[in-house]
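User: Fold this, then the next.

Assistant: Folding the first:
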Amino acid sequence: MHHYLGLHKQKLAIMLVATIASAIFYALVFDLKVFTSRGLVDVIGEGGTAACLLTWIVVFLWVRPSGRVTSLIFTGLMLIYFATLQDLLDEFFVIDQYKRFLTFAESVPSTVGMLILTYGFLHWKSEQESFNLSRLRTEKNLREHMAFDHITELYDAPYFEERFGQLLKHPEPMDVSLLLLDIEGYEDFLHQHGRPAANRLLRDAGALMAMSIRDQDLVCRYASDRFAVLLPQASTEIALQIGEDIQQSLSLCRYKVGTQRQMLDSIWISTTIHTQDAHGSVRQILKEANQQLTHKHRARVMVSDTVVA
């Protein structure tokens, strides 16, 4: 397991020196105290607190890289540990004549340490919020990159449905139009020319659709040879115009199959319009739109086997 203790050798040395120096100072200056049962209880309580603080410091330095937040929190914990250590040592030595000084040595570092620790936690909070925001952006980018169809490089159906649902729940009323497009005869074309040529047909058709829509629109490969175009803030008239633009773009499509050049001919675009004031879930709306498209025989994109010299 990777750790950062190697970056904090100076901090660990300070902690070790402070512990040893305090013990030596008490041993040289004060006389040992006779233990009582009450004193033993205090030793256990204060010693346990000091041991916990030492553990916190080591674990914290183990998982944290160097930096401002790390230094602040270490300083705060170290001062609290130092004050607790003084409180522990006075259980072993007679310090009556220096009690006022040692009380100062216990209370002031503890209070200052608490303040520094609190300040460090506030900076840690800001740091964590920045990390969380960065992580959310990264996850969003990953989700969007994973939501692509690998053949057409358009968005896939789940992402399309997610965006459609977001638009339907938008607080401001708007027209949301939907275009569904099929390639008539795609299965015959697939059997005749094979999968690579059929995939290229899908890819070329998808690229032309993407170039024929507005910046705020979304096109995806919905299923097999069926494409869907989501048009936010688009009335029926705008949706029909965009459908005509797609039709004109596809009518000029040229692609090569083996030694022959094929073209898309007799292009027909199917349009299924949905506005926000309609009712139903995304799945219901898309199901109805697909059923409507199935019954629109002329509203298809036709694939012609016309050979162009």
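Now the next one, as you asked:
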Amino acid sequence: MDTNDSDVNAFGATSSVDDGDDAEVTITPKEALEQLKNAMLTETLCPEILPHRGDLVDCITELMNMTKVNVALLKKSEFARSICMQELSRTRFMLTSYLRARLEKIERFSPAYFLDPVSESSFAQLLTQNEFTFARNVWNLTKQELESSALAHMPAIVSKLKKTMFPSPNLNRFVFFRVNEDCPDVLLDQDADQATQLEKGSLHLTRYAPVSALVAAGKLQLI
């Protein structure tokens, strides 16, 4: 997969792929792979589930399909074929790692979200249709198992499932991050007397909650 070849189209309105108008934009394969690496790291390190990067996933899938076609045209003895296969494996690893990180958090946190109607609505907006179906199935199976094996044998006063019984994202967890673009007047601590100026390229350690919106917007990169 040559990262210096022709451009690849990516669609959507998220992070640096978007031009701000929900329009189709063009990025190079090298830029797409860099964004995939950043998305994988941020999703893996983030305490909560981030909005799905459907634009980037589609772009990478298209890029991988193009590479498979190119590889099929090369002879097995050609050195370029070996390089393309290695790059294809690396890209597949990053993509599956990104999707796996999301599924692990969906499986862990879905009960807490489904027990809160307000949280359920916002939860659904973060997921693809397939992810939401998976989350719903996880919740239904968990609920069915708990009700049949435990709650049915308990007094009525304690036989109702509550959100506090299940794990929720720890938004107070400390995270390291790199600033992707200047962010003025960021309040990193609610007890702080003044806001902090986050300069592009700088590194910081702070609680996740105050910077969650900036992470979701792609302005900060978790590391």
